[in-house]
Amino acid sequence: MNGIRTEIGYTTPDRITLRGRDLATEVIGKLDFVQTLCLVALGRLPGAAEARMIDTLLVTAVDHGLTPSAISARMTWLGAPESLQGAVAAGLLGAGERFLGTVQNMAELLLQEGASLAADADAAAMAEHARRIVAACRSAGKPIPGVGHPIHAQGDPRVPVLMETASANGFHGKYCRLALALGDACGDDTRRVLPLNAAGAIGAILAEMGLDPLFGRGLALIGRCAGLVAHLIEEREQPVGQQVWNLVLRQDPRNVLP
Amino acid sequence: MNGIRTEIGYTTPDRITLRGRDLATEVIGKLDFVQTLCLVALGRLPGAAEARMIDTLLVTAVDHGLTPSAISARMTWLGAPESLQGAVAAGLLGAGERFLGTVQNMAELLLQEGASLAADADAAAMAEHARRIVAACRSAGKPIPGVGHPIHAQGDPRVPVLMETASANGFHGKYCRLALALGDACGDDTRRVLPLNAAGAIGAILAEMGLDPLFGRGLALIGRCAGLVAHLIEEREQPVGQQVWNLVLRQDPRNVLP
Amino acid sequence: MNGIRTEIGYTTPDRITLRGRDLATEVIGKLDFVQTLCLVALGRLPGAAEARMIDTLLVTAVDHGLTPSAISARMTWLGAPESLQGAVAAGLLGAGERFLGTVQNMAELLLQEGASLAADADAAAMAEHARRIVAACRSAGKPIPGVGHPIHAQGDPRVPVLMETASANGFHGKYCRLALALGDACGDDTRRVLPLNAAGAIGAILAEMGLDPLFGRGLALIGRCAGLVAHLIEEREQPVGQQVWNLVLRQDPRNVLP
Amino acid sequence: MNGIRTEIGYTTPDRITLRGRDLATEVIGKLDFVQTLCLVALGRLPGAAEARMIDTLLVTAVDHGLTPSAISARMTWLGAPESLQGAVAAGLLGAGERFLGTVQNMAELLLQEGASLAADADAAAMAEHARRIVAACRSAGKPIPGVGHPIHAQGDPRVPVLMETASANGFHGKYCRLALALGDACGDDTRRVLPLNAAGAIGAILAEMGLDPLFGRGLALIGRCAGLVAHLIEEREQPVGQQVWNLVLRQDPRNVLP
């Protein structure tokens, strides 16, 4: 037991220290947001390619329209517009096992099941390995994270660009290939297409980068936080919350609105 | 009434559109996080100086040690380590009127009370204007946002570097000067020093930049989200939650721990 | 400064004490939920009529269908079914200024504006007093809490039964009469009906009971917590979350679902 | 697919219906809180013994001093006193796998592993069954829910009174006996005492009552909600939040407070 302290930072009346650096003279205005994020969360500055890749993962998580997170945030604002933090929190609370949290699950699955895989395994070996993982998950009754999407049923448009960006930054290797093979194997198995989705691709890239899967889940929360702020600024100017409520009520003819 | 829609984005089976741009071909890998944030939240890309300044505001909000937000997040993780989103949300919920939310209040106060001020008002006029604002707040029983700090009682070390960064990027004008004058005026008035704090300086910079104060409060949430993720990664590896709980209980001698 | 301690309770290895009572021998199985709630929150047991009235206020807050709170909770469950607490929290976060929080605002307004009113003021004096309050709120640009309802536009069906229950328990006096008069006065003023709603009636009853308005807001949260648990149990069995999401997306023809 | 509707309730301009009953004429003032909770969550009124037992479970969950939940809620209030709902939500978010959520896990474990057990199994058979469950959990690397307590290391004082209340209401049978045996078996196995705790006893009682384990977890949230409201009312009157913050900071000598 080391006592109650954090290596993240400490403070005195005239100085704030972040991971050993003076916040005022060595961080603010000197490091950018992605560098500062890595400094506090990983305890080190990122390399240039790593920083670009992390930045891309944040961007990918920002938003895509009226998601359940955005609906929850706007419903919360409808009742409590005094609390931006409350509406953002309500939106983030849905980032769990089924949505953004899958980036962590996918990274963990790949790290565990793919560690023994040779870096230069050929396509046939990769496909065979993926089929074994799918079969093992199925027989254990466990979901396979990172595949399929309710809207992008034939393929998630974010996956190719994520894989390209990973390649361009030197982070496309066996885990990305295994993840793509998992998507193919799920399809074989269920007779319907269940291709890799964006969360799955992000999980694979996290594994390639050697980053902590929990950090990856954190990136998804930070990026989504930005998207939720955008939704709430729009909700204040062009509110749809009341209309969403009315719309939902009207689906049950027993509800009668004036 | 415009129907239920958001200008932030929409989606089809093979395409996600963000503010009119194709997410896969025009955003991911093309725009960085600050640009994407401005695109979704403000509906436009930022200028170069604006982007640097917004990046600095995000960095400033990240963290400074075991704040109430961090304690709340770690207490939550102690009971519910299965939910990173829950612990982050618990931390963000404290970003209200008294802490991070003050950036919004300060920006709004300055925009309202400083609009009539000439851009080149001299120091005496500025001081006089600040004294009138302080007097008006006091007589209305309203707190003056953005001044004083429980730890940095003689001056917040982040304020000078924030002001320098604002100057370097062309965002240091009458609102920053008025904010500094407000800190001085509070000191005069109460016989103790209540200098401008970081939240106050950020509020002033937001006013200079012409940004929506609610967006500024959103920046504080996004930055703090990064800091909370860092705390929770550390809590998993080197937990202090149980020790904090014991420490708090031991302050009351009626509690007896084994 | 009294040190860090709570009068609510303390604990030793073999005993838990709640407001001076032994939890195991004097509370569990001896006091019911409403008594225990009063004991911890107010520091005393309620009288019989008080307990009945508080019970009724809890019941009133439980639920009424697919409210914004319930929609938010179900949207959160859709992404994070591993965390009942997260979905309940997301639902409670909307209980703010505009919805359940109004019980506190109404109680505070009545206590402040009605203190000087004679207990036996006649109807004309009451109406005149209400008109002055409405005029003062309007000229200060402040909303009048507890009046009007988007669905129950001609009158909230909960108000008469709340007032009857208040009468039956000895809690119907000048504050309830003033609250009803406020609803009438708002109608006079705006040329449309804005009668007292349930939150307004509850606020008035809290004032009659001499209870802390913040405790009243707390009752609303506790009652609503029960309703949210019910919604989430149903959502697990007969989920509507995905359908709500699809329904919302389909309102914008630019969204195309498979 | 049944469309978007809830069996919990619906509303018209002059009527609110809860599970088929008129809220104004058949619920408010007619049913008490526990009855209303069962009506909305279970779709039926409870029997008299069931209602007493559920009431007792709510009471047990209310509070026991400065728990992590209470600390989190008070830390949140320190920064955002404008939002009671936010501080309550922050406290509830810690009711996860390790703390209150264990009532659900225990009930599920008992229902799964104890279904085949004869109602009149003798003590030896019960002990043997418990040892097998403990061994199976250990070999699968799964935690055993509902045993052990950091403070009540030799035995949780709430367990005997919960078991007595269960007996008095006809809910003490094989699941309660198996739960107690599990506590004994954990002790045998680890050479230290790990007796049944309150969450474990509640889980056993839920199994006896045939209630949905998720409903049991919901009861814990509702009860705890009451305790958190009490803490926040006290925090407003006799704040300890700032002192807790200072206390935590002072544990690391690198932090210097004025």
Write the layout of secondary structure elements.
The structure is a homotetramer of 258-residue chains.
Chain A: E1 9-12, E2 15-18, E3 21-22, H1 23-27, H2 33-42, H3 48-61, H4 68-79, H5 84-92, H6 102-114, H7 123-139, H8 158-168, H9 174-190, H10 198-209, H11 213-237, H12 241-250
Antiparallel strand pairs in A: 1-2, 2-3
Helix pairs in contact in A: 3-8, 3-11, 4-5, 4-11, 4-12, 5-11, 6-9, 6-10, 6-11, 7-9, 8-10, 9-10
Describe the fold and architecture.
The structure is a homotetramer of 258-residue chains. With 258 residues, the first copy, chain A, is mostly helical. In chain A, 60% of the residues lie in helices and 4% in strands. Chain A has a domain at 61-238: Cytochrome P450-Terp, domain 2 (Cytochrome p450-Terp, domain 2, Orthogonal Bundle). Chain A has helices at 23-27, 33-42, 48-61, 68-79, 84-92, 102-114, 123-139, 158-168, 174-190, 198-209, 213-237, 241-250, and strands at residues 9-12, 15-18, 21-22. A 3-stranded antiparallel sheet of chain A has the order 1-2-3. In chain A, helix 3 runs antiparallel to helix 8 (158-168), helix 6 crosses helix 9 and helix 6 (102-114) packs antiparallel against helix 11 (213-237). The A-D interface holds A 3-6, 10-13, 17, 80, 82-83, 85-86, 89, 248-249, 251-252, 254-258 and D 3-6, 10-13, 17, 80, 82-83, 85-86, 89, 248-249, 251-252, 254-258.
